[in-house]
Design goal:
The chain is α+β, with helices and mostly antiparallel strands. It has a single domain, classed as Porin (Beta Barrel). The chain is 15% helix and 45% strand. It has one helix spanning 2-22, and strands spanning 30-38, 41-49, 55-59, 64-70, 78-84, 90-92, 99-102, 109-115, 128-139.
Amino acid sequence: MRGNIRNPIVAILALLGTLLSGSPVLAEDYSVDYGVESDAGRDAGTLTCRFDQICSAKMESLGLNVSFYLSRHDPDRVSVHLYSYNVIGCCFFAGAADAIRIEPHQALSRVSFYKGVRARGALLIENERVGTLYLRFHSR
């Protein structure tokens, strides 16, 4: 009888071990060092993020927010958004895009950002350069 009770316990422990080993990092999957150099000044920080969730940081001193999205199914591209709650018409990237996709495996990404208007159709839009966003991603 003791052997019958032990088998379910062993099975449950084995199942828990399998589930936990399938996802070795439950609370965090990657981190990102970010920095901004702009007309308004400089700010930097580090975020700990999870795959398949939007990860955001607020840079109070510059009036900027930056957010990242990295899918577990496409770990070679990170979607990056930068927006301002102080500067009207900020922030766009090259081609007047409001988001960019970058490769997280680069040692350091340097991305210029602009204020102006969003791209519409085939119009050529030249926005005013405001600063540079620096990004470095680390796998956990």
